[in-house]
Amino acid sequence: METDDFKKNFPTTLLQTGHDILFPWVVRMVMMSLELTGRLPFTEVYLHAIIRNADECKMSQTLGNVINPLDFIHDISLEKLQEGFKSSKEDYPDGQYINLNKFCAEPSRDFCNDLFLTGTETPCDLWILSRLSYAIEQCESGFKKYQFSQITTAIYNFWLPELNDIYIEYVKKDFYADKPNLEQQNRQNTIKLILYTCLNNGLRLTTPIMPYLSEELYQRLPKPNNGQNSSPSLCITPYPQSSEFNQYHNKTIEKDVATITDAIDKINSYYSTPGVPRHEPVTLYIKSSSSISTLFKEYFELIKSLTNIDNIQIINDEPTVDQKEYIHIATTSDYRLFFKLTDDLE
Known about the structure:
Blueprint (H helix, E strand, L loop, with lengths): L3 H6 L4 E5 L3 H16 L6 E5 L1 E3 L16 H7 L2 H10 L9 E3 L6 H13 L7 H20 L2 H24 L10 H25 L4 H10 L30 H21 L10 E7 L1 H9 L1 H7 L2 E6 L11 E6 L3 E6 L6
Parallel strand pairs: 1-2, 3-4, 5-6
Antiparallel strand pairs: 5-8, 7-8
Helix pairs in contact: 4-5, 5-7, 6-7, 6-8, 6-10, 7-8, 7-12, 8-9
EC number: 6.1.1.9
GO cellular component, one term: cytosol
Organism: Rotaria sordida
């Protein structure tokens, strides 16, 4: 007699396994299932790579070359090791084997640390919702095509450069007030709701890649007062679907923010010059078309949050050679950027 759990979980759709046990194990599973239930246990088989040591030899107890997982857990952890496997292209010589090297997981260890710290901040904006929509679309497409590098890239880009590096910094100012007025409270509540959407769905995206870290963070995630989407565990939470987030996709905003962040990178590159004090506020002068100038003004708060600019001015004529207090920062096909130096910088 079939139990309710059996009816719910059998048959499955996909089996993930190594090609070395295709006939010794997978075929036997199929034959046994057909004999006992008359049904296939799964309809697809994904053959993952075989982990080898750094010398490209298959791990074997007979050879005595099995790497002790505890050696990795001490410095890296299994979670970060798994992420390192899936995103390290150079360690996939032909797609069938992975050469296990401790150093391949170190970048993922740093990423996991940044991801863990993200939950203490509160980012917000239409752009981040658009980028969330894009990340969900990329993950959904990647799983259908078994392109795991596409999945890990989408997750990494959403969490680190987009959510952490840009929007966490951008919205900090909205929580500086000790006694926020009604307008500030409403703004903070809006930010918190959008933040919950980003964190909740971001963790759901990450679960198949890093299940333990995602679950730990999910349990720490404050839930909305209305209990919206408050599942007790990510294990039983549906994976985000792109159809649910298409309404947030905004190519215009993404293009605008890409222009601004490119300018921000150029500005910060100037500040990295030896001898230039980063704490010194300066005025940014922009020579560009009216549309680009308007764009810079519209995103002034974003520029200010991510740089040390305290004022933006639009100029019609470029500074002359005699005006030595001006320094050229960057030139693109759309704009030219200048700083006016203070006495200290001169």
